[in-house]
Design goal:
It is built from eleven helices and eight strands. With 303 residues, the protein is an alpha+beta fold. It has two domains: 53 residues, 3-methyladenine DNA Glycosylase II, Chain A, domain 3; 179 residues, 2-Layer Sandwich (Alpha-Beta Plaits), CATH 3.30.70.20. It has a two-stranded antiparallel sheet with strand order 1-4. β6 and β7 form a beta hairpin. α2 crosses α3. The C terminus is likely disordered.
Length: 303
């Protein structure tokens, strides 16, 4: 009996000492938490998509409470969440255009020349490191990795080419990160529809014509029509989205592209094709005939 009492007393003493140590440690080592963090977290959609640039909503809430980021980064919640965060934090926001993905390739399977007989793993990531998939070493591989990672059912494949459903798209950027060829880019949508260069091939025009029916041949006709927004870089036309105002009329320049490489992406509007048909013709320069310059690692060929 005495042994049991002594054992019990010893255990009680040890438990008391351990509890005291934990209380002291908690008081001295506790990390202070901003009480606003939980409240901010309640305003977020808890999608944990990473579109804000943080691993999840909890980290974004912590960064907001610490003043390390802005309140307009939640692409899933959009303007309503941004407004709620700004109201809670007592800040004012300058209206900003939402960022949405665009596809820098407009070639469907029927437009791609030199298709190979690929029999490997049916993913873009696997096909990107395998030779002989298709003639173009830049364009969409068509296996739908971007579709697989989209949690909002906002992308579907149409004849081997991804198409974004902008009514569902939250702009989380998952498709951008999933594309091994980096043909998907997040751009500001100042209007419901924006023009996109539907090509990412930097080869000279003659080489492009050998591998694609709709690839940019570098004729620079569009750049001459809108030099303030379009310019040529490495045989490919580039659109400066930072200079867009949302009031540009892209119909004439789109209609003059001989390869139809300039496409309009966003929410559909009626009568767009009829508008293109009424635009007057302009002269188109011949494609550049410079020597081909490879754009891929010779040790990791993507073609």
């Amino acid at each position: 009996m005495l042994t049991m009492l002594l054992s019990g007393g010893l255990m009680l003493v040890i438990a008391t000492v351990v509890c005291a140590v934990l209380v002291v440690a908690h008081a001295h080592l506790a990390v202070p938490v901003d009480p606003r963090q939980a409240a901010i977290g309640d305003l977020l959609p808890q999608a944990n998509c990473g579109g804000c640039g943080f691993p999840g909503c909890a980290e974004y809430a912590r960064a907001l409470a610490d003043g390390r980021t802005t309140a307009d980064r939640c692409t899933v919640g959009g303007p309503p969440v941004t407004a709620a965060l700004a109201k809670y934090l007592g800040i004012s926001l300058t209206p900003n255009a939402p960022y949405r993905p665009v596809i820098h390739c407009s070639a469907k399977r029927s437009d791609r020349l030199g298709q190979g007989d690929y029999r490997g793993i049916p993913t873009c990531t696997a096909a990107n490191v395998t030779g002989g998939v298709q003639g173009c070493a830049y364009g969409c591989l068509g296996f739908g990795d971007c579709v697989t990672v989209c949690d909002f059912d906002a992308i579907h494949m149409d004849d081997g080419l991804p198409v974004v459903d902008y009514a569902k798209c939250a702009g989380c950027g998952a498709c951008v990160r999933a594309c091994p060829r980096h043909i998907i880019e997040q751009v500001p949508f100042r209007t419901d529809r924006v023009m996109v260069v539907g090509c990412c091939n930097h080869d000279p025009g003659k080489v492009v014509l050998e591998v694609c029916r709709v690839g940019c041949i570098g004729c620079s006709a569009c750049a001459r029509m809108m030099p303030e927004l379009l310019h040529m870089h490495d045989n490919l036309v580039v659109l400066d989205y930072d200079q867009l105002t949302g009031h540009e009329d892209f119909v004439p320049v789109q209609a003059k592209c001989p390869m139809k490489s300039l496409v309009i992406m966003g929410k559909p509007q009626p009568h767009h094709e009829q508008e293109l048909a009424h635009v007057a013709a302009v002269d188109v320069a011949h494609p550049a005939r410079h020597s081909a310059e490879t754009r891929f690692d010779t040790q990791n060929w993507r073609g």
